[in-house]
Every structure is written in structure tokens, then in C-alpha cells.
Amino acid sequence: MSGPFGFTVEAGDGRARAGRLTTPHGEVLTPCFMPVGTKATVKAVLPPALEALGAQVVLANTYHLYFRPGAEVVRAHGGLHRFMDWPRPILTDSGGFQVFSLSDTRVVGDDGVEFSSVYDGSRHLFTPRLAIEVQEALGADIVMCFDQCAPGTLDRGEIARAVERTTRWAAECRAAQTRGDQLLVGIVQGGVDEELRRRSAAQLLALDFDAYAIGGLSVGERDEEMLATVELLDGILPADRFRYFMGIGDPVGVVEVVARGVDLFDCVLPTRLARTGSAFTSEGRLNLRNARYADDLRPLDRDCDCPCCRRYTRAYLRHLVNQREIAGMQLLSEHNLRVLVRLCERAREAIVAGGFARFADEIRATLSAAHD
Amino acid sequence: MSGPFGFTVEAGDGRARAGRLTTPHGEVLTPCFMPVGTKATVKAVLPPALEALGAQVVLANTYHLYFRPGAEVVRAHGGLHRFMDWPRPILTDSGGFQVFSLSDTRVVGDDGVEFSSVYDGSRHLFTPRLAIEVQEALGADIVMCFDQCAPGTLDRGEIARAVERTTRWAAECRAAQTRGDQLLVGIVQGGVDEELRRRSAAQLLALDFDAYAIGGLSVGERDEEMLATVELLDGILPADRFRYFMGIGDPVGVVEVVARGVDLFDCVLPTRLARTGSAFTSEGRLNLRNARYADDLRPLDRDCDCPCCRRYTRAYLRHLVNQREIAGMQLLSEHNLRVLVRLCERAREAIVAGGFARFADEIRATLSAAHD
Questions:
Q1: Starting from the edge strand earliest in sequence, which strands make up the sheet with A123-126, in order?
Q2: What is the pTM of this model?
Q3: pLDDT tens for each residue of A196-222
Q4: What is the 3-state secondary structure (H, E, C) of B9-32?
Q5: Which of A76, A84, A318 sits opposite B295 (nearest CB)?
Q6: What chain A residue is nearest to B313 in terms of C-alpha separation?
Q7: Which of B330, B208, B214 is nearest to B279 (CA)?
Q8: Which of A148, A150, B227, B301 is the most exposed place for a label (fewest CB within 10 A)?
Q9: Digit-coded pLDDT (tens) for A122-141
Q10: Residue A2 has pLDDT above 80, yes or no
Q11: With an 8 Å Cβ cutoff, is A365 touching chain B?
Q12: Which segments within B117-247 are labelled E, that is strand?
């Protein structure tokens, strides 16, 4: 791995890995869940609270920051770390996912994608070169290739074309890079088709990226197909590079991909659920809008060490959620993130101790409990 | 002053006073601005942040908590301190202000007020006895008499009737009290009519309350009338009891009432302004939605010691406000509250040092600068 970066697998248990990633803004212990700070802020959780709950890396979105406030404003601050006051590692996506998911009038060409901005409807062209230029202005530690996200639910020809474009664009991203302090991650596409996944991985491996992401999953395919694809790639991707699964944030899903060799992952789910009053707990998912919690004096989760669970009752949290108080969003967002972070801490300990299989079974048995 | 309470004026400068209030949940140095936590949460600011910015007392609203979550839920927690995890002093109002301001179908009788709940339209009767019962369940350190708020803009006969009712109700509140650990404050009404204010104060003084509030101001009257009324009461209210001005939170207004002998005050203004992107600064009030701040790399206020001003630029804050990010509300709420708290800290120092008049002039010259 080049420059200021390093990645070492320190322990393995089955396919699960305990790793250590070095970046210009510090080390990251894996498995690692990365909270999403779409617009350079993790919704309702300020950086001191993020640090306190053990978050190691924050993700930000190139698409949104390109439009608001604009990459040059962030560059003038010296990059995202200072703009958003987050001193630890940051990862930016390439904008590819939003370009495909947020516009129904996009035109995909071999050079890039023309689309309408969700902010004002104006037409824009995103290319691999632009995605890198913007990410260099934003200044994250880890940056992503501009890819074409092709869900497994598309027809095979379309997915195959997305694989070809993703490879071409990955090479163009590599060529566009001018900064030596950003780790560029290649993204494997191919839906849930084994041959297309093998083809995409082989083409990207030929470009020899420092790390690989698994894209195009968690976008409508069946769980078994998703997990089979991750398992397939575990056998193909080089063991000494980290693997980043894009977009998974439910506790059981996280354990399943960690069990199949994934090191990093992100998702808006924990914070989005929190803002609607839902919480991950060791009894399953709780919806605090439910009247049954109106006079429930118990903590949200007896087994959790977050401020929300140490200081408040379910009755108070329900009151905040019902009254749409910002404090409810703050406390539940911190809690849900802490659940994911702690799950990763415990997964790592289990891997190091050689007890990951039992740990994973325990999580499957408790955290997938019926929702209410 | 009875039981676990005490109030001492430690220094005076002109009419301004530096006091020390003792309560079952700790001491309060005055002058003191109290942040408003209407529904048992100061909007967008959790208790650790409130403590960090130097807040000493938090106010909560009996009307809202009576309906949601209900006084019995709070009582079951052992009171508001544990319900909302605020270990320092709490003051609850009586619900009187909301009963009069939130319902246009109220029926005022000598026994109390019948009105429609803003939550579901159901009809309710609030009496002095009920206001005390609810406040005893909520368990604040300082509780308020149930009064009839009569703005100076009403006709004189109506204000006179409100004064009579307020006195009768104050006696009923006193008689209804069963707890010995709550300081009950009498509220002077009388609009901006000198004779009615004198009458109201004399009637309440005859009941010998431990502290007095000035109600019925900041509700539409002219500034000169408001200040003349405060000045009048400074000459009437006993010097050894604290005086609480209900509902003032702009920095210059705060200095003007402190200059006229007021010790405690509260207002939703700092947090409400923050949620719409407005900030108090030493250059006057700034509205961060203004495009001029889009690439402004300066802190919000160079003279402020709050986390928002130490860590962020106006450009970042404008971005958060424009994108309606919760972080913007968090940071600006903390900032605006810190401005008020620090203003009180500085006012106290000036009073102790005998330099309050110069301090007040400085605040009038800077903080009343043109808004933008």
C-alpha cells in the first residue's frame, strides 16, 4: 500500500478478519462501521459525540457537497476535516451512486453521466476526472472511483455494460489522481451474476488498487444472492487489501458480511431510523412511538453503554420522539451508532479470540428479533 | 427565606444586583439567564452541553408537560431532574401564560380558566390548586403562582380584574402547597399602569412570598413603558428577595432589566432564533441564511468562547443552516445561549467591580447593532 497508508490483517477467524488501517488522520481498527455524514455532518450527532461513541471514520457525499456548499468552499477551509471539525479519517464516495439514484432523467455515456441536480434541476455532467477533482478538493483520506451502480435486478446486458464502464472509469480515475495522500478504492460491480462479478473483479485487480469496494449490493436483490456474492469475492479479492461493502447498517447484515471477509461498511440506516424513533436493541428493534413505552421506566437497552441508555428511560425517549424534539433524534442517533460501533468492537475481539462463529450466532439470535 | 433556600445580594451597583440563590439542587449566581426547556428538553441542546456553556437553571412548562407526557409520568421518574437528566436547579411556570396565550376559546372565572388543549382540543379547567399539584408532581426547585397575564395593551378594567384574580389565586396557590422543598414565587401583574402595579405588588407583599416575578411585560407594550414598570417595582419589591422578569432574552433587553434590579429572566428567543439561523454576535444579530456568508472563513463571533465559535466558520454554519441540518440548530442554539450566559457572567463581574454602568453602555453600543 502506497504513501502514508497501510493495511494489515492482524487476525482471522474463518473468513472474518481483524485488521488495522493506517491513514494520514490516524489508525482504523476493522471491522469498522462508518457513520454517514452526507452533507459534512452526521445528522444530529456533533463530532465530540461521534468521538465519544467510538466512531473511527466518517463518510461524506461528493454529489451533495459538489452542489452545496460547493467543492471550492470546502477546499478554501483546507478540506473536509477542518470544514466539519472531524480530526479522524474521512471517506468520500464518488457521487456515482447519487447520480444514478437521484435523477430519473440521467443520460449515461461512456464518458460519464449527464443528469439533473436535485437542488435546482440544472443539468450537469459527471465524469471520472471530475469525481476525482472534486474529491481532491474535499480532501478525504479515502476516495472512491466513479462507478456505475447496477443492481442485480437489472437485465444482464445492462449489468455487463455497467461492469465495462466501471472498469474504464476506474482507470480514468486512477489517471486523474494528483494527490499522494488519498487512497483510491476500486469498486467491483456485476450485480448478483457470478460471471460478471468475476469479470469485474479481474479487470479491477489488473489495475492493482490499494483496496476494493463491493458495490451494487443492498439495492433490491435477495439476501442469499447478496451474501453469495460477498462470499464469492472473498475468494477473489487479495487478502492484504481492505474490502469495503457499500451500504449495510443493520446489525445482523453487518455480522453476515464480516463473516464473509468484509472490513469496512457504511449506511444511513442507524441515523435515519433514529430520526423516526426506531432503535436497535438487544431485544430487537424498538419503535419508541409505540404507546406501550409511555410509562416504561427502563433504559432503552440495559446492555448498552451509550449516554442515552445510561441516563434516560424509554418513557422520556418516547416523549421526545412523540413531541418531535431534536433531543430525541440526538439521543437515538447516538445510540444506534453506538450499537453498530460496539458490534464491530465486539466482533473484532471475537475474531482475535477465535470465537467469531459463536458471537455471530448470538447476534443472529438476539438482534434479528421481531420488530415492533 | 424558608427551608433549603436562601438568597443573598452580595454586591450592588446602582440598581443592579449580584446575588446568590441557594436551592436543593445547588447555587445560582445572579444575574442569571435561564434557558427554556419547554417540554423537558432545551431544544437541540442536551444537558452536558448546557452545563458546559454555564447554564445554571433550566425552565420547563407546566402546561405542556401536563398534557404530554402527563405529570404522573414525570412523578414516577422522581421528578423533572431525573426525567430530563438535569442535575441543577429547575423552575416550572404555572401554565397560566399558555392557558391565556394558546387558546382563543378560554373562559376565565374566579376559580380558574377553562380552555381547549392545543394537543387534542379537549376541554380542561386549570385552577390555582391544580397548577400547584402539577408543579409538585414535576418537582422543580422553583415554582410559580397561577396568574392571569394581562398585557398593558388591554383596557384598564380588564387589567384591574386580572390583578384581583392574580392575588386571590396567589393565596390559593400558597394554601395548596404541600412540599417544603419548592420555592413559590408570587407574580406581580398590572400591565403598564402605575397604580395597578402598585396595587398588585402591595397585595402580594401582604402574602409575604419568598420571591417575586414581574409578569405581564414583554407582551406588546412599548419598551419605555416596560422599563418604567420594572423601575417602579424595583422601588417596591423587598431588596432581600430575588426578582424574576418573565420572558426577556435579547441581550440589550437583559442588560436594561438587570440595570433596574432584576435577578433572573428566561426566554425562548435565543434557541428559537438559532433554529431559524440567527445568531447574537458582538457585531449585532447575524442571519446565517444570508449569501454573504457563503465563503466567509471567519468564526461566527471572534469574541465568543463557545464550541461553535472556536471550531467552525460562518461558511460551514451557513451551509448547515441552508441545508436545514440539525447540527446547525445545535451549534447556533449553544452559541446564542452562551452569549446570554456570558453576558450575565460579565454583568455580575461588572456589578461586583462597580463598573456596571460602563458595561451596560458597551453592550447597548455593540449588541444593538443593525440586524442583517
A1: A107-108, A113-116, A123-126
A2: 0.97
A3: 999 999 999 999 999 999 999 999 999
A4: EEEEECCEEEEEEEECCEEEEECE
A5: A76
A6: A83
A7: B330
A8: B227
A9: 999 999 999 999 999 999 99
A10: no
A11: no
A12: 123-126, 142-144, 183-188, 211-214, 242-246
Burial B89-99 (b: 16+ CB within 10 A, else e): bbbbbbbbbbb
Q: Are A93 and A184 in contact (CB under 8 A)?
A: no
pLDDT above 80 (res B2): no
B124 by DSSP, 3-state: which?
strand
Residue B266 annotated among the catalytic residues of the structure: yes
Interacting residues of B118 by C-beta distance below 8 A, sequence separation 6+? B67, B98, B102, B103
Residues B82-124: tens digit of each pLDDT: 999 999 999 999 999 999 888 788 999 999 999 999 999 999 9
What burial letters (b/e) apply to A191-207, b meaning 16+ CB within 10 Å? bbbeebbbbbbebbbee
* Interface residue B107 vs chain A (CB under 8 A): no
User: How far does the CA of residue A40 sit from the closest CA of chain B (Å)?
Assistant: 9
Active site residue A266: yes
- Does A76 touch chain B if contact means CB atoms closer than 8 Å? yes
Share of chain B above pLDDT 70, in %: 98
Average confidence (pLDDT) over B4-23:
98
A234-290 pLDDT, tens per residue?
Answer: 999 999 999 999 999 999 999 999 999 999 999 999 999 999 999 999 989 999 999
How far is it, in rounded angstroms, from Cα B47 to Cα B84? 8
Give residue B369's pLDDT. Answer: 58
Joined grid coordinates for residue A264: 469496512
Alpha-carbon gap, residue A184 to A144, rounded angstroms: 6
Strands A142-144 and A113-116: unpaired
Predicted confidence (pLDDT) at residue A368 exceeds the cutoff of 90:
no
The reply to whether B232 touches chain A by the CB within 8 Å rule is no
**CA-to-CA distance for B115 and B110, rounded, in angstroms?**
14
* Gap between the Cα atoms of A13 and A348, Å rounded: 10
The residue whose grid cell reads 399539584 is B133
A274, A46 Cβ separation under 8 angstroms: no
How does the average pLDDT of chain B come out, rounded? Answer: 96
**pLDDT at residue B273 greater than cutoff 60:** yes
pLDDT score of A369: 57
Q: What is the DSSP string of B196-212?
A: HHHHHHHHHHHHT-SEE
